[in-house]
Amino acid sequence: MPPPRKRGTALRQQLAELRGPDVPAKALDARALAALAANPGCRRRAILDGAGVNKAALAGALGSPSAFGQSQFALTRGNAFEAKVKADGGAELLRLVHERLDRSAEPPAHARVPELTAIGPEGRTARTALALREATEAAGEWTLLDHPMLALDVAGSPAFLEPDAVVVHPDGTWTVVEIKSFPMLDGSADPAKVGAAARQAAVYVLALEQVAARLTQESGPAPEVRDRVLLVCPKDFSNLPTASAVDIRKQRAVTGRQLARLTRVQDIAETLPEGTCFDPARPAEELTAAVESVPATYAPECLAACELAFHCRDRSRAAGAVTSLGRSVRAELGGLTTVSDVLAAARGEAGDAEDPAVAALRRAAQLRAEALSAMTPGATAPEAPACH
To answer: What is the pTM of this model?
Structure first.
């Protein structure tokens, strides 16, 4: 058993105790941050991600294993394609950047590829910031940063992010590059996958803007982070790279606004019972109690973005929460938060008749009863709607 958590301890120590003794932290990547930003009201995901808890292992220990995540085959294929794109010092990648985003610049006959290795994520973040500053000051040259490390403050806790690449143009502007293994057929790709890539890229742009702001304080005018990113994919059914410029201004604005709305991780941690721990090795009863001590905001969209979605869905259905039917349904029902509240309002047993949601439910129940009555001549119309 971990020692009781003291309220005054430092945040890092608090999060380590929540994660469990000797349990390594799971890095929070851009994919997870984009998903977190899409559901900013979920305090459960915020504290688990902030503490670096492995949610897949946690879901398995709770008896609701997750099917979320990439297959090993997809990861291998993606790594092989990325290596092809970056071969020969990134010559093909830079050609695509020039062709799609910066035709007015000189073609990238050669480029600087700085070494970004350092000890620990903090060291790599500092080395990346130095490389960005040097590249920005080297006017007239192309620079390719291969897997730089960026830090982004999320709910009071730093998240370390690793984009596929960042290109510094000859004019000193910065571009995020996302390399994906899904195909681009006849110049277009699956809109859902492109949208997910754009949301990830928006997280990287936000992190780069923080780096640019710090460089401004040190050495003058802020470097510009371009609001169009380069999405590189295989062309048609081949392994040849092609690319498209993606405008991520909308995703950047939405993601930035949602991340700003997140409750600070420390504030959530301070509300938890003493001794709360999310170590998957703990007994199932204690682990369930720990998870349930943090409120969740489940919606069907979580199934494609969170490893704990099956567990939260079961709890949401058991509680009769209308959010299990979708965020759009929840928004339409106003203050009616459970299925039983909705049915009672439809029957006229509860609810304010002046409430537009209640009035709409009662009208829908009346129309349903009339339709069923018309289909069965002589039958008495049912008094209450069924729940489907």
So the answer is: 0.74
Judged by DSSP in three states, 307 sits in: coil
Residue 309 CA to chain centroid, in angstroms?
14
> Could you please report the per-residue DSSP string of 226-265?
PSEEEEEEEBTTSS-EEEEEEE-HHHHHHHHHHHHHSPPH
- How many Å apart are CA 181 and CA 235, to the nearest integer? 10
Using CA atoms, how far residue 82 sits from 75, 180, 375, in Å, is 10, 8, 61
End-to-end Cα separation, the chain, in angstroms: 45
pLDDT tens, per residue, the chain with 388 residues: 444 444 444 777 888 889 987 888 887 788 888 888 888 888 999 899 888 899 999 999 999 887 666 667 778 888 899 999 999 989 999 999 999 999 999 999 888 999 999 998 999 999 999 999 999 988 789 999 999 999 998 777 778 999 999 999 999 999 999 999 999 998 889 998 999 899 999 999 999 999 998 887 666 677 899 999 999 999 988 889 999 999 999 999 988 888 887 778 888 888 999 889 999 999 989 999 999 999 998 888 888 888 999 999 999 888 888 888 877 777 777 777 788 888 887 888 777 777 787 888 888 888 888 888 887 665 555 555 554 4
Strand partners, 246: 229
Q: Nearest to residue 159, comparing CAs of 122, 117, 127, 129?
A: 122
